[in-house]
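Researcher: Here's the sequence for the chain we discussed earlier.
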Amino acid sequence: MSPEERERKRRWMVEYNRRREASAAKAAQPDLAALNAIYGTRFRYGQQVTVTGRRYTIIGAKWGAWLRVKNKDGKKFVCRPYDAYPGKILSGEKGWELRKNAPCIPRGEHVTLWLYESGKDGERAIIGKCRMVSYVRMLYMPSGQALELLIKDACVTEEHIRAYLPFYAWGVQDPVRLPAAVPLSAIGMTRPPQSWQYLTPEQAEILERRLA
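Model: Thanks. This is the structure I predict for it:
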C-alpha cells in the first residue's frame, strides 16, 4: 500500500469514527435528557465521571434511573446517577452539595465529610473526604450570577434547584481520596445513612489511619 493510500484510509477511518460517535451521541441524548430531568443532573454523552474510584465515560442512560458508562477498555457498566457525585467532589468539580438539612459547624471551624458511593452489587464503600466550611440556607430561588454559579458548582440544573427548594447548600473544599475504598462495615456500619450522619471519634480515627 502506497503512502497516499494509507493516508486516504486513515482519513476515511477518522471520518467514519467521527460519524459513528455523532450518531451514538444523538441516539443516547433522549435517554440522558430523561434521566437529567428526573434527577436534576447535567450528564452528557462522552462526559468523564469517577465511580468507585475509576474513570468512566458516559455513553447513555437506561430506564431513566441508571447511567450507562464504559471504561477505557470499552467494557460497559451501569451505575446510579448519584454515585458519580462523590467523584465530582473529590475531583474538585463540585463545590456545593445540596441537602435538606445541615450539620452544626462551630464558629470559625469546619466539618470533615467522609464520602461514600455504591460499588459492585450495591456494596457501599467510603472513598475519601473533604471539608465542609460553610452552608447557605436557600429559601428562595437565586437569580443572575448567583444562580449561574450554583448551577455550575453544584452540577445540577435550574429546574432541580427550583424543585428542591428549600434546601441547604454545603460549601465543600480540600478533597482527599483514600488510597483504597473502605467498606462501611470497617467502621461498624451495616447500611449507609439516608442523607448523612455523624461519626464517632473512633470511626473517624479508623478512616484517618487509612489515609496515612
